[in-house]
Design goal:
By secondary structure, the protein is α+β, with helices and mostly antiparallel strands. It contains 11 helices and 17 strands. The chain folds into 2 domains: about 280 residues, 3-Layer(bba) Sandwich (FAD/NAD(P)-binding domain), CATH 3.50.50.60; about 140 residues, Elongation Factor Tu (Ef-tu), domain 3. About 30% of the residues lie in helices and about 20% in strands. The protein has a 6-stranded mixed β-sheet with strand order 6-2-1-7-17-16, with helices on one face. A 6-stranded antiparallel β-sheet has the order 10-11-12-13-9-14. It is globular and about 70 Å long.
């Protein structure tokens, strides 16, 4: 009998892991509760649904996400294949048409002969070879089953939020304008400028607007990389001007000057009929979102296609519980992938799924697993979740601080990061023959 792997969850990590196994000849049973049951964060029936932004963040090699994406592309990532095929303009970032992106992945998975999709909720970790990629919203009986691997107490949590989406046809382009920061590349963003008086009034309304109740929510429990705008507003009047409303490098064509503050919108689909409000994660009540965000010039009569939402994310305190291959220590036939491991972000979740798929296949084929060196972004991320030695393990996006330092001094941050990236890709290229040797 051919070896079979059961994967729980068809998000980014589960979909990537399933694909890596299938193309290496391993039979996969992919369990997904959608569309029979939807979590608070999900809206569509497709696999690998992007529940927050449609951006996969920076595209350049001189930033962590850009390097990680290139490493995954070289390793045959399905998610990267879909991202490239369904890319939308986003300046220096990589953004995708979220529906076409997920549809592409769903079709590829459902049509592969080594993949069997089983719809329905999973309430316990099954016997055999398993990859748990159930996501940070895992709850109920499965949550309890995971906890039993470590005596019950295995998760921490933080709160995550998504930004609203508006229709392009409802944006008043007499008040908004297209521009890119410092005029770099194409003018892919819609910009809504504010003067000082309006900005101050807007911040005050954000600070006092009514929030939707979220059990156990506290400002301090918010993940810093996805902080609600109302929480930022409470941290100080200028916090938003140094964050998502930063005006630096934007010129208002009506005045020829830099605005006091600016709200940016980015296309959410290839047709550019939908735009998300960049960095405006929120958990305000829906009527309050409509009221306060309608203060933004150009959005006075905006049609909200989706309001922002907030949800609790749970993750394993992975150091000491998972090894550098994302395996449960002492139960190596069980792997975890995605945000539940303590990686944070679309790209990082995908990377963990890619590593799990490759190495589960290698183990079932009688080969040693591959550990990507910590000179690479893939290896640095795995080292963070397995080898973190601090007292307060928290979700982490990929960044150059996690990757091994250079042995030489390089002047200038951009030049230094490019050297790190070049070394990472050179190191990875030496492993590619082993990574890809079983692909059929």
């Amino acid at each position: 009998m051919k070896p079979t792997v059961k994967i729980i969850g068809a998000g980014l990590a589960g979909s990537e892991a399933a694909w890596q196994l299938a193309i290496r000849g391993i039979q996969v049973e992919l369990y997904e509760m959608k569309p029979l049951e939807m979590s608070p964060a999900h809206h569509k029936p497709y696999f690998a649904e992007l529940v927050c932004s449609n951006s996969l963040r920076g595209a350049a090699l001189v930033n962590g996400p850009g390097l990680l994406k290139e490493e995954m592309r070289r390793c045959g990532s399905l998610i990267m294949e879909s991202a490239i095929a369904n890319q939308t303009p986003a300046g220096g970032a990589m953004a995708v048409d979220r529906d076409k992106f997920s549809e592409y992945i769903t079709e590829k998975i459902k049509s592969h002969p080594n993949l069997t999709v089983i719809e329905g909720r999973v309430d316990a970790i099954p016997e055999g070879n398993v990859i748990v990629a159930s996501g940070p919203l895992t709850d109920g009986a499965l949550f309890e089953s995971i906890g039993e691997l470590w005596g019950g107490d295995m998760t921490l949590h933080f709160y995550d939020a998504a930004a609203p989406i508006v229709s392009f046809s409802s944006i008043d382009m007499d008040k908004a304008f297209y521009a890119s920061r410092y005029d770099k590349g194409d003018a892919d963003y819609i910009n809504c400028p504010m003067d000082k008086e309006l900005y101050q009034a807007f911040v005050q309304e954000l600070k006092t607007a009514e929030e939707a109740p979220v059990k156990g929510f506290e400002d301090k429990a918010v993940f810093e990389g996805c902080m609600p705008v109302e929480v930022m507003a409470r941290r100080g009047e200028d916090t938003l001007r140094f964050g998502p409303m930063k005006p630096r490098g934007i010129t208002d064509p009506k005045t020829g000057e830099e605005p006091y503050a600016v709200v940016q919108l980015r296309a959410d689909n290839k047709e550019a009929t939908m735009y998300n409000i960049v960095g405006f994660q929120t958990h305000l009540k829906f009527p309050e979102q409509k009221r306060v965000f309608s203060m933004i010039p150009g959005l006075e009569h905006a049609e909200f296609l989706r309001y922002g939402v907030m949800h609790r994310n749970s993750f394993i305190s992975s150091p000491g519980r998972l090894d550098k291959f994302y395996r449960v220590i002492g139960k190596e036939h069980i792997m975890f992938a995605g945000q539940i491991t303590g990686v944070e972000g679309y790209v990082e979740s995908t990377a963990s799924g890619l590593c799990c798929g490759i190495n589960m296949a290698r183990m079932l084929l009688g080969k040693e697993p591959i550990f990507f060196p910590t000179k690479t972004a893939l290896g640095a991320l795995a080292q963070h979740i397995s080898g973190y030695v601090g007292k307060n393990f928290q979700p982490m996006n990929i960044n150059f601080g996690l990757i091994d330092s250079l042995d030489e001094r390089v002047k200038g941050k951009q030049a230094k990061y490019m050297k790190v990236a070049e070394r990472a890709l050179e190191t990875l290229d030496g492993l590619i023959p082993s990574v890809m040797e079983d692909v059929r």
